[in-house]
Specification:
Blueprint lengths: L1 H4 L9 H40 L1 E6 L3 H16 L4 E6 L2 H12 L12 E7 L6 H11 L3 E4 L2 H43 L1 H9 L4 H32 L27 H24 L1
Antiparallel strand pairs: 1-3, 1-4, 2-3
Helix pairs in contact: 2-6, 2-8, 3-5, 6-9, 8-9
Length: 290
């Protein structure tokens, strides 16, 4: 066991393969941290969007100006007696102006335009009967249309789910790229040390011993590089702008709570990838040198 622990010392270090392994493991792990952060953040965003939109709905009221207040009152009365509706209120002119401002500017005269009035409702945990509510609105407030945000919620949740899948797929591609690069580095190191391998065989070293020498060296290099890459990636994620500073664009991007421990799993995984890639490459190369 003592000899196995120091088996890598019989292999002379080769500079370019050492740096290639360290750099590849570090760079790929750095990218994997951001891919992991993206995947987890997209999952949280999907849950938040689904929850926020699922608990709210909007009723759009289109009626002549002289009947608008009557229609609004009728809608509010219907909602007040609808099981599953926690609260309901009509949006003010200022609130509707704020909703339209991104498209029409801040000076839109909402009060003088035939803009439909909006009533916002918040449902209880058990929800409400949307179809039954539509029928009641059609009977008591013909100008009212219920929008339960289904057509908005579904694309958002699907998009976030695909973004999460893209993050996991990126991690798999990063792992495959790391394995390929480390395999190339291991092959180069084995080829560069062909004479050393021949001498080791002459003195009775078995192929398994030689393989352990290369595997240990490349696994430790990959572990060291991946640890540095994971640390740099975590620092980079921590330095991302907050939601306020980024205007909400980066809301939720990053790790939260125990999620900060997940990047710490990447260096051992990188070492495992290096172990498997180097072991496979070493046995294959030794057969070629036989």
């Amino acid at each position: 066991m003592h000899a196995d622990r120091h088996a890598d010392r019989v292999v002379p270090p080769t500079g370019h393969t050492a740096w290639l392994t360290l750099f590849t493991a570090g760079a790929m792990t750095f990218l994997a941290v951001f891919a992991l952060a993206l995947s987890l953040a997209s999952g949280r965003l999907a849950d938040r969007w689904a929850d926020a939109l699922a608990r709210t709905a909007t009723i759009r009221i289109a009626a002549p100006p002289d009947q608008m207040e009557v229609q609004i009152r009728a809608v509010l009365d219907v909602l007040a007696t609808t099981p599953g509706v926690a609260s309901a209120r009509a949006l003010t002119d200022d609130e509707q102006r704020a909703l339209l401002e991104p498209w029409f500017g801040p000076d839109l005269p909402v009060e003088s335009l035939p803009v439909p009035r909006l009533v916002e409702l918040i449902e209880e945990d058990d929800g409400y009967d949307a179809e039954g509510l539509r029928q009641r609105l059609a009977a008591e407030a013909p100008g009212a249309v219920l929008d339960d945000h289904t057509r908005w919620r579904r694309p958002l949740v699907i998009a976030a789910g695909r973004l999460r899948l893209l993050g996991w797929a990126s991690i798999l591609l990063i792992g495959g790229t790391m394995a390929a690069m480390i395999t190339l580095a291991a092959n180069a190191s084995l080829a560069a040390n062909a004479q050393v391998i021949k001498v080791l065989r002459l003195v009775g070293a078995r192929d398994a011993y030689i393989v352990r020498a290369f595997v240990r060296r490349f696994t430790l290099r990959a572990l060291a590089g991946a640890a540095a890459g994971a640390l740099a990636g975590m620092i980079g994620v921590a330095l991302l702008p907050s939601a306020d500073a980024a205007g909400g664009f980066l809301t939720g991007l990053g790790f939260t709570g125990a999620g900060w421990l997940l990047p710490l799993l990447l260096p051992p995984l990188a070492a495992l990838v290096a172990f498997l890639a180097t072991r496979t490459a070493a046995f294959r190369k030794l057969k070629e040198l036989t």
